[in-house]
Predict the structure.
Amino acid sequence: MAQVDCIFCKIIKGEIPCEKIYEDSKTLAFLDISPASPKGGHVLVMPKKHYELISDIPDEDLSALSKTIKKISKALLEYGPGLNIIQNNKKIAQV
Ligand SMILES: [Zn+2]
């Protein structure tokens, strides 16, 4: 279920444009508009349904998300020496 005020739900619905690099029925991956590194490669990977916390994601959707993260990771590792995978939960975890 999409949240009306969620920027990511708006991106998934196509209401806000993004640089999409991968999409399937359950997940979307796109370039961050404000990359953490000037070298690029900052990709946001998310489920198409809105979840507040990782612990809220049903196993089926979490499995699909993990598979997409693996695909994106393989692609990024072809172009760089390494990568970070960060998953923030709640405001205090934001970096
Ligand atoms: Zn959302």
Observations:
- Residues 59-77 form the longest helix (19 residues).
- Residues 7-93 form a domain with the HIT family, subunit A fold (CATH 3.30.428.10).
- Residues 3, 6, 8-9, 50 surround zinc ion (CB under 6 Å).
- Residues 28 and 46 are 6 Å apart (CA to CA).
